[in-house]
Amino acid sequence: MSSVFAAALCLISCAAAGFGMALATGKAVEAVARQPEAASKINSILILGLALTESTAIYGFVTALIMLFIK
Fold it and tell me: Could you say which DSSP state residue 11 is in?
């Protein structure tokens, strides 16, 4: 039972990563709306940030799977 609770705690990082990606994407859209000439630079920085955030979610997911299936 405790491994299920620990896995659920690991999955909090997935939810937080999703929230962070949504927030970053919204801010990038606002930035492009303010300065359309900087769209390519904003886009490249956004893609890098989203990749790093997604890796955090994947690490949390893999850790949760390890806790559930390795006893």
Answer: T
**Ordered alpha helix ranges (H), 1-71:** 2-10, 12-34, 39-69
Q: How many domains is the chain built from?
A: 1
55 and 30 Cβ atoms separated by less than 8 Å: no
Q: Which residue has the tokens 């039972």?
A: 1
Whether the pLDDT of residue 71 is over 80: the answer is: no
Flag whether pLDDT at 1 surpasses 80: no
What's the distance, Cα to Cα, between the start and end of the chain in Å?
Answer: 12
Q: What pLDDT, in 10s, does the model give residues 10-31? A: 899 999 999 999 999 999 999 9
The answer for residues whose C-beta is within 8 angstroms of residue 45's C-beta and 6 or more apart is: none
CATH of the domain at 38: 1.20.20.10
